[in-house]
């Protein structure tokens, strides 16, 4: 079954790479430059099956986005990406949605594995 994934990262290269990886696994992907754009999209669309979010962004960072989503009673499995993964754990442990923290730079095989694992764990 085709699943939908929402990618949020302020770096175009990361967004394009993740889009390619996710599409190659047979899933639909929507990507956004910041949390605010993603939140507006999610309010108008069916919620995605998975979120892949950069933690450090200028306009609505990853924690702020997850907080807003969970406040709407949406608990979507989420992968947080960061160059400072250990520090991010301190800021995200309270969120029910966060299932994985992915250190940047990331290994493509690991990204595929994490995405597929979360999309098949219903």
Automatic annotation (TrEMBL):
<protein>
    <submittedName>
        <fullName>Two-component system response regulator (Stage 0 sporulation protein F)</fullName>
    </submittedName>
</protein>
<feature type="modified residue" description="4-aspartylphosphate">
    <location>
        <position position="54"/>
    </location>
</feature>
<dbReference type="InterPro" id="IPR050595">
    <property type="entry name" value="Bact_response_regulator"/>
</dbReference>
<dbReference type="InterPro" id="IPR011006">
    <property type="entry name" value="CheY-like_superfamily"/>
</dbReference>
<keyword id="KW-0597">Phosphoprotein</keyword>
<feature type="domain" description="Response regulatory">
    <location>
        <begin position="4"/>
        <end position="119"/>
    </location>
</feature>
<dbReference type="GO" id="GO:0000160">
    <property type="term" value="P:phosphorelay signal transduction system"/>
</dbReference>
<dbReference type="Pfam" id="PF00072">
    <property type="entry name" value="Response_reg"/>
</dbReference>
<dbReference type="InterPro" id="IPR001789">
    <property type="entry name" value="Sig_transdc_resp-reg_receiver"/>
</dbReference>
